[in-house]
Structure formats: C-alpha cells, structure tokens
Design goal:
By secondary structure, the protein is an alpha/beta fold. It is built from 8 helices and 17 strands. The model has no long low-confidence stretch (mean pLDDT 93).
Length: 380
C-alpha cells in the first residue's frame, strides 16, 4: 500500500479532525474504498460497515472486496445483517408499487431507511460522531444551517437520491467525494494500490443484479416465493384515452408511464402509456403525457426549508422528478396549513412524470430543500 497525501479533490475543511471516529459504509466498490483511504489519510479512526441486504453471488463478491480493502488499509470491516429490514422497507414496497401501477424509486428509500439508519445507529452505539459514505454529494453550512448540496460533478451528483435524509442523519454525514470527478477517484485508488480501482460501476438496482435489470422477472419470482402476500399479476385491458378497450395485457407490471415500445397493439400513430389504474393500462398520443402539477406525500423537509418555504403562499423552487434531469422552475406549496404534504407545479408541462417517483425541490443554487413521493398528477 502506497501512502499518499489527501487528494486535491477532497476539501479537508469539511473532513473530520484527526483522531475522529468515523463509521464508513463500505460496499466493496471503488467509491467507498477510496473514501476509506482518504479518511485514513486525514488521521481518522475508521470503522467499516458492510451491510448485507439480500442473498446473491454479487453480494458475496462485494463483501469480500470490502473486507480485502479494509485489510489493506488497516480498517476493520464488520458485516451487519440487514436483510430483514431491506426486505421490509425496500423490496416489498418495490413489488407492491409496481403491482399498483406505480414506478418505485428504491435507491432513495434505501439511503434513509437502510444505509443511514444502520450507520447512524452503529455510530451512536460506539460513540462516533460521523458517518461517511462514497456518495457524490456535499454538505455545507448556510447561515449556520446544515444543508445538502449537489456534487461539483453534476453528471455524478447523487443528492437527488438523498433528499430523504433526516436532520440528524445529515448532521452526522461526511461526503469526501463531493468535489470529485470519477476518473480522479479511480486514479487515486489505483495509486493507493486498491484492487477495486477499475471495478465497474453498478448499473442496475442492486437486488436486480442477478436478473440483468429485468424487474418483471424479479417480481414474478418474489410473488411465487411469498404466497402469503396478497399480490397477483393478472391479465387486463389496454384502453385508449376515451376508455375504449383496444387490447389486452398479461399484467400491468409490464408497463410504465411514458412507455411507447412493446405495447402489443398496432396503431396509425405512436401511442404512449399515460396512466395505469386498477390493472388497466391507458394509452394515447404524446400530449396525454404532459403533466403540470404533482401532489406529493410523505415529504421530508431539510432544515433550510423552514427558512424558505411558506405555509401561506406558493414559493419559487427548482424541481427534479428524475435524477438525470436538470432542475426546472416550479412552485411549491403545502397541501393545507396542517399538512406536510405538498404540491409542486411546473412552470412548463413535463413528460413522463410517474406516481411512485420522487420530486425533489431545490434553491436556484441547487441546495436541497426537501422532497416527497408523487401520489398523483394533473395535466392542467
């Protein structure tokens, strides 16, 4: 192992002081492994945690990689079995939402319900004040208030998936890669002698890795292996925008909002899925996909939101409903004075906004104010 200085992409001013105890989530990938090396260079006492979330060959390889990196760096890596919690909070809701015609976002749920819950709990048990991960995001103090901000490399930014972090989780969080470019991370890992330096990035939802990302196959197998849950995949109707039956399907889980290909019906003009309800799949022209307003539930508001969002009037924000999109102009307002639910109205109509996904709202500078889960949409 070659000792290096702290890399130039890491802002030492936001790192824990030497001697600080830091709990680090280690996945066996290059990002968390590089984060471990950086923390060691900063003089931190690092406690590595590998969370076992499900059973698969890829999990076994990842656990081995995490522990091999830990051994090289002198970082103890403890495996914590979180399969029961992962099944409850991530996998089952994923299956249930698809069966209900919605499009889930499991990675966002996993961050606050699984990863940060487990890491922060462990940190409190051992008296550590910090929790680190290899996420590409930044934490800043704005007027003395802790805030979640996007990574400098916008193509890698993961702050969209972290909108659900609770105040206490965000306060403990450390993001050493917030200013990093992936190529520099890999180079630093290579120079440090980490064997995972060129390990490919995960491309799919982690528990679909054995299914080549084919979520329908996973859902069918899950339901077959859990006969006690009340979920069924039934054939149903494909309807046009006037509710006329124009075809049949073998399960609404095979369709998502905005889908054009693989509908199994022929038409003179392209048709798109614009609504899924009660196992019926509705298709129409592209204009039917235009959404202007989203109603969001189970909102999480970051500390800075209290200073910016008003209970009495709509507030200008910048909204995201997909992680890969640039935030767009919108307004946010509470559903009512006594509710934490909200309404996000886009300045211009948007395509492919799906119930089950998340809307994250930000300041113009990209600071995350909060976010919520899309319950329903309107095109006016």
């Amino acid at each position: 192992m070659q000792k290096l200085n702290i890399p130039s992409f890491c802002d030492q001013a936001v790192m824990p002081l030497p001697g600080s105890h830091v709990v680090l989530g280690m996945s066996g990938g290059v990002d968390s492994s590089t984060t471990a090396a950086i923390l060691k260079e900063c003089g931190c006492v690092v406690h590595g945690i590998y969370l076992k979330l499900f059973d698969a060959k890829s999990v076994e390889r990842a656990e081995t990689d995490a522990k091999d990196v830990g051994a090289l760096l002198g970082v103890p890596v403890e495996t914590i079995d979180y399969r029961e919690q992962f099944d409850k909070f991530v996998i089952r809701p994923f299956v249930e939402m698809y069966c209900d015609g919605k499009t889930p976002l499991p990675c966002a749920i996993c961050n606050y319900e699984i990863k940060y819950r487990a890491l922060c709990t462990y940190a409190r048990q051992i008296g550590a004040c910090f929790v680190a991960t290899g996420h590409y995001a930044q934490k800043m103090l704005i007027d003395g208030i802790v805030a979640l901000c996007p990574a400098e490399d916008k193509s890698r930014d993961q702050s969209y998936f972290m909108f659900g972090l609770r105040k206490e989780q965000l306060e403990m969080a450390v993001f050493p890669l917030g200013r990093a470019v992936k190529t520099h991370v890999r180079q630093y890992a290579k120079e440090y002698g980490l064997h995972v330096s060129q390990k490919p990035d995960s491309q799919d939802i982690c528990f679909l890795s054995e299914y080549n990302g084919q979520y329908v196959a996973f859902i069918k197998e899950f339901i077959a292996n859990h006969p006690q849950i009340n979920l069924m995949i039934e054939s149903g109707s494909i309807l046009d925008e006037n509710s006329n039956i124009i075809g049949k399907h073998e399960g609404a889980i095979n369709y998502t909002i905005g889908q054009r290909r693989g509908l199994g019906i022929s038409a003179a003009n392209p048709l798109y899925v614009f609504k899924i309800r009660n196992n019926d799949v509705f298709v129409g022209n592209k204009d039917k996909l235009i959404i202007k307003k989203t109603f969001i539930k189970a909102c999480n508001y970051h500390p800075l939101a209290i200073e910016i969002l008003s209970k009495d009037a709509p507030v200008d924000v910048y909204a995201q409903y997909r992680s890969t999109m640039s935030p767009i102009k919108a307004t946010f307002e509470y559903s009512d004075r006594d509710s934490s639910d909200g309404i996000v109205t886009f300045e211009t109509g948007q395509y492919g906004v799906s119930p089950g996904q998340a809307v994250v709202f930000r300041t113009q500078d990209g600071v995350v104010l909060g976010g919520g889960w899309i319950d329903k949409t309107e095109n006016t």
